[in-house]
Amino acid sequence: LQARKDYTNVAEGIVVREMDMPQVCGSERMMMKIKHPKFGEGVEPKPKPDHKSPEGNMLCAWVLSLVNENRIMAATSKIGSLKEKRNWNDIVSEVLRDIKTEWGDDDEFKKLKFMLEAKIHEGINTILARKGLLTGTSKH
């Protein structure tokens, strides 16, 4: 099939789950998630913690790349408007939960959690500023 160029309403992706499948991963059911590249929430596989480059720790760069507008907006759609400052902590928590699901709950994640929280707040501020909705500089 060829994509039609006149379509502007693009699906974010699909999730496939087996309804009658026994739980094979502990208490979790298996699923497959395919996202359209436009809605990507991270692009490369997780590097090994000891993988270094001249630019610094690749693991740190990778996990910080998981904080992006698509992921923040997905959390916002679950929690509530970014314009409401009272939603920010819940949005940050939802983004962290989503990243933790992808990352895993290990010592490296725990070490970078504070940095992730700051990056999420920075992302919220960037989105609000771009939309002309940023009225203050406080993150909380």
Strand content: 5-15%
- Outline type: globular
Q: What order do the helices and strands follow? A: EEEEHHHH
Share of helical residues = 40-55%
What does the average pLDDT come to?
Answer: 75
Instruction: Give the helix tally.
Output: 4
Please outline what is shown here:
The chain is built from four helices and four strands; from the N terminus they run E-E-E-E-H-H-H-H. The chain is mainly α.
Structural overview:
- With 140 residues, the chain is mainly alpha-helical.
- 42% of the residues lie in helices and 10% in strands.
- It has four helices and four strands.
- It has helices at residues 58-65, 69-79, 88-103, 107-130, and strands spanning 13-17, 31-35, 52-53, 56-57.
- The strands form two sheets. Strands 1-2 form a two-stranded antiparallel ribbon. It has a two-stranded antiparallel sheet with strand order 3-4.
- The longest helix has 24 residues, at 107-130.
- The chain starts with 12 loop residues before the first strand and ends in a 10-residue tail after the last helix.
- Mean pLDDT is 75; it is low at 51-56.
What labels describe this entry?
single chain; 140 residues; mainly alpha; two-stranded antiparallel sheet; 4 helices
